[in-house]
Amino acid sequence: MKEQVNLKIDNLSVSVDEGTTILEAAKKINIRIPTLCHHEDLCVAGNCRVCVVEQAGLDRLQPACANPVSEGMEIFTNSLKVRNSRKQIIELLIAEHRAECTTCYKNGKCELQSLTNEYIVGENGFIPLVPLKGYTVDEFSPSIIKDDSKCIRCQRCVRTCDQIQSISALTVAHKGGEMKVSTFFEKPIYEVVCTNCGQCVNRCPTGALTEKVYINEVWDALYNPEKFVVVQTAPAVRIALGEALDMKPGEIVTGKMVAALRRIGFNAVLDTDFSADLTIIEEGNELLHRLKRALKDKDPDVKIPMTTSCSPGWIKFIEHTFPDMLENLSTAKSPQQMFGALAKTFYAQKMGVDPANMVSVSVMPCTAKKFEANRPEMRASGYQDVDYVVTTRELALMVKQAGIDFGSLPDDDYDSIMGESSGAAVIFGATGGVMEAALRTVYEVVTGREVPFDGLNITPVRGMENVREASIKIEDPVPEWDFLDGVEVKTCVAHGLSNAKKVMEAVKSGKADYHFIEIMACPGGCLGGGGQPLPTSPEIRKKRSEAIYREDSGKKIRKSHENPEIVQIYEEFLHEPLGHKSHELLHTNYVARQRY
Amino acid sequence: MLQTNETIKKLADKFGRKEESLLPILENVYEQKHIISEDDMVDIARELDISAAKVYGTATFYSFLETKKCGKYVIRICKTITCMMHGKNQIIKELEELLKVNLGETTPDGLFTLKETNCLGQCHKGPAMLINDAPFTELTPGKVRDIVNKYRQEEKQVAS
């Protein structure tokens, strides 16, 4: 047990573990010290100075986020000196920030704005420096917009890109007054190694980094009477959307979301979960196919382990970082793109809609999905398969724009077809979920029995640990898969790209002998995606994760291959997994990109 | 496909491939080429296996590492308050006329680049400037003309 340290904050006694910061100690007794550069997911920076506090006996104010407590310390978080300094610090930050709040996308959600509000920062602060600096706005990426005129140089984004994602597409360049957050040679974001994961967007306290917004394009399509507009909703949207609409983290709002989308005017409200189930069938069969080639046919060309391919941030990361390992990626498209390809083919045929007049919209917890939809490979239907991608945050805004009182909406059901899903699809939204969903199906295909876990809950692959390993021993397989008898299928799950990098390096160097690896680019999986409601923290992600597994266990169907609409689409349209049609519509290829 | 950059490879061999080797490598590249180019930065990133943006961030942080092409001699005039009160603006004006370039520019013959710098620690002897590593203090317009002429003549001798 750690040694306890006793101190006083604002005359209240508190006892905390050695090494705790003043900020954390204050939080423990419900004293909120304002912060900007500090973020629970990141290391201490101590550069914004808004968290300064007064320590008895010291003349200089101390940043609460960067100073550990010591025995007998006396801290004042609200003295006159602290208040005056803090106000001045905020005024200095505002002097370098393009504070045109009314026209900013982050208006009302900006951490700097709420501090100026709290400290009543008036107009008579410091001379605004923004007009003198010649800032640029980078709007070229389909996913992320970087507006330097709103950057307060807190470097949360830089730390995110480095520590969570191990990419460092963003860095701190120059120094002093010229210091700025920059890419390599100040190139546009779309030209550098950025994966579009949007974790920086999730952590930016101002409007300097935001997603590219496609709300108006979607409304235009909805108002156009000639267009048939379909919408799909990703698994992780339904457990987070409520947060952006005045609800608590962890509330499941599937029914209300469907009702809202219908009110907004979509012609068909369908589910990415359907195509998540389809992904499991295709990807699961691909895994078995690869195992067969490797273990039975002893084919030296087959690449094992196979890794998942649902996360577009992960895809772009491996394309940049391990361009020689692209054959390890499953060729199965992500659920969003499978859905897109089928919407303008299978669904359009069924419904008698001309695909030329169809607009396909997807609601995603993700900014990288915007990039994915724009990839040139994603035109299997003959059109752009997914036309517009909006984030969970953008959908929440659309609900507000439409004047819908979200909380009072009655629950509604998805349209059919391509609206039915299993619990296995729901858990795609959490780290470990794709693995669990795949194992539920693959194990049953191979052995004819359910996975040997209580209530189909494969708990070893669940949780928030950085890298998790699990293995399942195949016993008594059906004759077709007899070569797998006694084989221990080794799996690995990683979330966050820095963890993914470690796993892939282990695979590359031959230190790991996995068969199947699941990677999601964002911490916690899609539920912590770059398009999810703000703020994000380990606690909020845990609540979302619990909601996802709750939604799974509440589903009647828990296994992808038992989804009746999946059975139907194979009977009527696709005929067989990995078949001709599947290859045409549901599988893709990848491109090697520059690593540096 | 990729041409190996011998300069960078040799430097990486010499200083090692750890992140802390970045600064000595950058210094040496600049010494040899008077510029740290985009391509060289990518090659450094590749050798050390770090992000190219990090190399760029480090290279731009240090004012004595240049990421844009500079002259053989970089003249840096102290811009801080003491030198300003000692008349550094007249010195800059003189240099601009002498070299026929503005602050921040390089002469067409590639010989001189004119820049300002932060305090050189010669406040008691201002105005002060550096030409590459050599300091010059208590400058006057006349003194500056002599110094520049000396450099020009040396160059001519080397050339002939």
Automatic annotation (TrEMBL), chain A:
Classification via PROSITE patterns: 2FE2S_FER_2, 4FE4S_FER_1, 4FE4S_FER_2, 4FE4S_HC3
A Pfam family hit: Fer2_4
Cofactor: [2Fe-2S] cluster; [4Fe-4S] cluster
GO CC terms, sorted: membrane
Protein location: Membrane
Keywords: 2Fe-2S, 4Fe-4S, Iron, Iron-sulfur, Membrane, Metal-binding, NAD, Repeat, Translocase
Every 2Fe-2S ferredoxin-type domain range: 3-81
Recorded GO MF terms: 2 iron, 2 sulfur cluster binding; 4 iron, 4 sulfur cluster binding; ferredoxin hydrogenase activity; iron ion binding
InterPro entries in UniProt: 2Fe-2S_ferredoxin-like_sf (IPR036010), 2Fe-2S_ferredoxin-type (IPR001041), 4Fe4S_Fe-S-bd (IPR017896), 4Fe4S_Fe_S_CS (IPR017900), Cytosolic_Fe-S_CAF (IPR050340), Fe_hydrogenase (IPR009016), Fe_hydrogenase_lsu_C (IPR004108), Fe_hydrogenase_ssu (IPR003149)
Domain 4Fe-4S His(Cys)3-ligated-type: 81-120
Domain (4Fe-4S ferredoxin-type): residue spans on this chain: 142-172, 185-214
Similarity section: Belongs to the complex I 75 kDa subunit family.
Name by which UniProt lists this protein: Ferredoxin
Source species of the chain: Marinilabilia rubra
UniProt lineage: Bacteria, Pseudomonadati, Bacteroidota, Bacteroidia, Marinilabiliales
Automatic annotation (TrEMBL), chain B:
Cofactor: record remark: Binds 1 [2Fe-2S] cluster.
Pfam family, one: 2Fe-2S_thioredx
SUPFAM superfamilies: Thioredoxin-like
Source superkingdom: Bacteria
Positions that bind [2Fe-2S] cluster: 78, 83, 119, 123
Keyword line: 2Fe-2S, Iron, Iron-sulfur, Metal-binding
CDD domains registered for this protein in UniProt: TRX_Fd_NuoE (cd03064)
Gene Ontology molecular function, alphabetical: 2 iron, 2 sulfur cluster binding; metal ion binding; NADH dehydrogenase activity
Named cofactor requirement(s): [2Fe-2S] cluster
InterPro entries in the cross-refs: NuoE-like, NuoE_dom, NuoE_N, Thioredoxin-like_sf
Family: Belongs to the complex I 24 kDa subunit family.
Family matches, as PANTHER family: NADH DEHYDROGENASE [UBIQUINONE] FLAVOPROTEIN 2, MITOCHONDRIAL, NADH DEHYDROGENASE UBIQUINONE FLAVOPROTEIN 2, MITOCHONDRIAL
Protein name, entry field: NAD(P)H-dependent oxidoreductase subunit E
Organism field: Marinilabilia rubra
